[in-house]
Amino acid sequence: MISSQTHPQERRDFRRLWSGSTVSQLGSAVGMVALPVVAVTVIHASAFQVALLAALTAVTTALLAFPLGTYVEFRRKRPIMIATDLVRFAGIASVPVAAALGALTFVHLCVIAVVNASCQIAFNAAAQSHLKALVSAPHLIEANSRLESTRWLSISVGPSAAGALIGLLSAVGSLVIDAVSFLFSALAIRTLRTPEPPAPVREAHVSRREELFAGWRFAWRHPALRPMLVSWVTFAGASSMAAAVSAVYYLRDLGFEPWQYGLIMGVPSLGGFAGARLAPRLVARLGAVRGLWWASMLRGPWYFLIPAALPGTLGLVMCGFGFGMVLLFAGAANSP
């Protein structure tokens, strides 16, 4: 276990990374609820515009995941993590500033969505790679499981708190919490004391273009990674598009209050937390590939409960339960 069987400096640095990541994720979870509410209630975006906002995030993630991952691979990780945190702080903070000046537009929100998605890809790639420099190999699965379970726990707490914060501060004001969380994350990373190892050296004969698409080609040609890639792109893209459209569905079609929307987006994420904590047992029992296959197959069907819901308490329960089961298996699939 990381808490008792590792070097003291390794434990301290992992806890710094863990705490910074937790606060950042809590803030992001608040923003996950607040930003669609801003789009729907402040600038009165149409369902098409909200869908477009989500599509931009999904397309950015799909197109840049491998190229940015390759770019990050050959550079120092901590400066990238700090820089992406600061960029996200500036981007999110610009929304309440623009709203206060009466200058907030749909295009502004689209730019923020693309910038945030890009920074998140780069940050996650750097953090995942840098974790290997902070935690010894025997403890990596446990470290990943803790980070993933904390991510799901923060997603369950953050959106639930976002409903209350929206009532207290407004949706725009809640984004200030999200922005400040990125500053805390950058500070936590800045305090890491374990020396960062040198970045890998790029091979001189490999062109930049070939390098950028090497990850895509390797994954596509690998018999085990190709179906995982297709599964990830399909599920992540569909989920990203559904996330923002669901704000219109919940707030307008089903008539839920913002605090109820926060509950739907938050409490079911406890399923993701449980799935992440169960992932090591799933891997031990079935193996990494079979465990991932089963978790991936079982995460989708539960989505059908959500469009079948009706206004009222029963509909709230149906949406929450369906979303919770989706996230249970998604959490298990993301952790191996």
UniProtKB/TrEMBL annotation:
Subcellular location per the Swiss-Prot or TrEMBL entry: Cell membrane
Main location as per UniProt: membrane
Ranges annotated as spanning the membrane: 21-44, 50-74, 86-115, 161-184, 229-252, 258-279, 300-333
Pfam family, one: MFS_1
Membrane topology: Multi-pass membrane protein
Tree of life domain: Bacteria
Keywords: Cell membrane, Membrane, Transmembrane, Transmembrane helix
Protein name (Swiss-Prot/TrEMBL): MFS transporter
Organism per entry: Nonomuraea insulae
